[in-house]
Amino acid sequence: MYTIYGVTDCPWCLRAQAWCMENEVEYVWVSMDWSPAYREYIKNSWGWKTYPIVTETFFDQDGPEEFLVGGFDDLRAKLLSTEE
Length: 84
Known about the structure:
Blueprint: E1 2-6, H1 11-22, E2 27-31, H2 36-46, E3 53-60, E4 63-70, H3 72-83
Parallel strand pairs: 1-2
Antiparallel strand pairs: 1-3, 3-4
């Protein structure tokens, strides 16, 4: 499962969501619209400077583990590479 952290007026954030929908990829959208402090916290936590910030989460008996994918281009490249 993917998590897309973003803001609603960001075209790349919208493209990331659209790409997931078109490719039937499960994702969660985290709207960062109303919390500039949380936006900065998330950017600093992942070491990523722009939005969207896309992560992939794996679930197992030890609980969820979340890993950075990157931005829209990184998400698209990852999904395209798994299709081959």
